[in-house]
Task: inverse folding
């Protein structure tokens, strides 16, 4: 008698050639967000806030991001051409928004640096230190932010 038992063959599984993925991202206010502007100098923004974002990955590999991240607290560490490094405190309500390109997010971030300094180099009659507040507005795209600053004495 011949053995007629045959091995079962698994059915052929056809995988889709590609799928679109859409993910809604929301963050708790205590979640940290880090944005490194320049790895060489260490310029970075670290924040806590809330995100309401939508990430889409298309079957051709294209990524898109839309929505906003509202900052509640954090800091912006910046190096001024390697001469000095300062830590600015981020102001609540600052926002980063995206409308497609992951790297073209738009900044509208305000930050403040407070210190006491002598004005002796401006006028030798000053003998005491005075409080100085430097305010910085980062605006424009993530790739090329445009800092605007102004000082309060």
Result:
């Amino acid at each position: 008698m011949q053995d007629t038992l045959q091995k079962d063959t698994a059915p052929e599984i056809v995988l889709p050639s590609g799928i679109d993925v859409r993910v809604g991202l929301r963050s708790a206010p205590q979640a940290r967000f880090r944005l490194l502007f320049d790895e060489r100098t260490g310029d970075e923004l670290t924040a806590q806030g809330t995100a309401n974002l939508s990430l889409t990955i298309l079957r051709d590999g294209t990524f898109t991001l839309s929505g906003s991240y509202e900052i509640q607290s954090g800091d912006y560490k910046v190096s001024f051409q390697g001469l000095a490094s300062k830590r600015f405190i981020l102001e609540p309500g600052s926002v980063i928004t995206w409308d497609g390109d992951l790297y073209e997010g738009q900044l509208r971030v305000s930050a403040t640096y407070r210190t006491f300094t002598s004005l002796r180099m401006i006028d030798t009659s000053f003998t005491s230190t005075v409080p100085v507040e430097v305010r910085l507005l980062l605006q424009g795209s993530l790739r090329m932010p445009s800092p605007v600053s102004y000082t309060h004495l």
